[in-house]
Fold this protein.
Amino acid sequence: MTLEFGLCLLALFFLAGIGAPIAYSILIASFVYLAAAGQNIGIAGKVLMDGLYQSFILLAVPLFIVAANIMNAGTISERLLKFCVAVVGRFRGGLGHVNIVASLIFSGMSGSAVADAAGIGKIIIGMMTRSGQYTRGYAAAITAASATIGPVIPPSIPMVLYALVSNTSIGFLFLGGIVPGLFMGAVLMGMNAFISARRGFALETPVPFSELPRHTANAFPALLMPAILLYGIYGGVTTPTEAAAVAAAYALLLAGLFYRALSVRALYRILVESARSSAAVGLVIGGALILNYVVASENIPNIMAQALVGLDVSPLVFLLVVNLLLLLLGCVLDATTIILVIIPLFLPTCRELGIDLVHFGVVAVINCMIGLITPPYGILLFVINAVTQIPLREIIAEIWAFLGVLIVALLVLVLVPDIVLWLPRMFGYPG
């Protein structure tokens, strides 16, 4: 490691340690490297513009954010929740199951765990606490845990970012996330059923089966969005970026014209909020592109790959160690930073060891999502605390059971790659 790169790391850790936003920390640390190495600072601008112009795929990020924010508006979320209550609310721990199934459905529209937790999560937490059966902490914890499914089932903003740094097909990544996302939902529902039986949660008043068609009809247009997205991408009708534009347009038509739940003023607020969220992600992407140039200049990924291959590390051991490292990093870093800055370091080693990049990407994204609910710095815990005012200590006290089963599910996905790769192979993936 050169002195210049050492100064870069020192600046990065110092700035992050004193609480500077991670995007600014990355940018300033990269400029420190360029200055110390005697390189023109204009290189940063060239790297940034080249990275953005060559990454048409990045347009999908703000479009998915807009679609998620529109779907959160008005009555769309409530219609979906009523449908979920009618389907699974009749079982013990019914509203907990509703919470998880709603996240599974909404994940096919938003691609964002934070959008999932802040939008539909706020509504279901209110329903759970008003019922008098669930503590505030339990309602918040299961909401945070189920929101981690959001970026696993397509569309997925983190998978778009992973495709950017790994050159992997977004279509196959999206396919690879479907079965693991359903698997995560199943283990969370299993844990909710176990806790509900153990604590003796009362049964909800079941919605009569005669009313199920009405609730289904009300929610059906919203339920169509995932199907439209998947058909567009895998039917060869649209690229993933174009599918994101279709999703945003469909959400707008649905909320504005079909459900009549979106005013011009509300749309303006949604667009402003979406622009802010996109800008925040864009800053991290810009900083990561420049930092990745620095890392490539130092040849660090190849040095790591050669060192690990020289140690004769098996692919499974490598995957387990990397996942443990990502779990630890997920406690202090957000998913965007991990995917754009940390994961590229391991990709050359994955190629050397013959690890499938779709499998690695899906597992890495799930890992990052688990990091969002890992105390003490899990971002989703803070998001739910902010939107509901439920104390963090109550949420953290209840999160451990759900965190445990998600880590077990992650381990199963690492050990059995076919769970991730089965669906992509069905659609012609050669891996």
Notes: The longest helix spans residues 264-297. Residues 40-426 form one domain. The chain has a mean pLDDT of 82. The two ends are 35 Å apart (CA to CA).
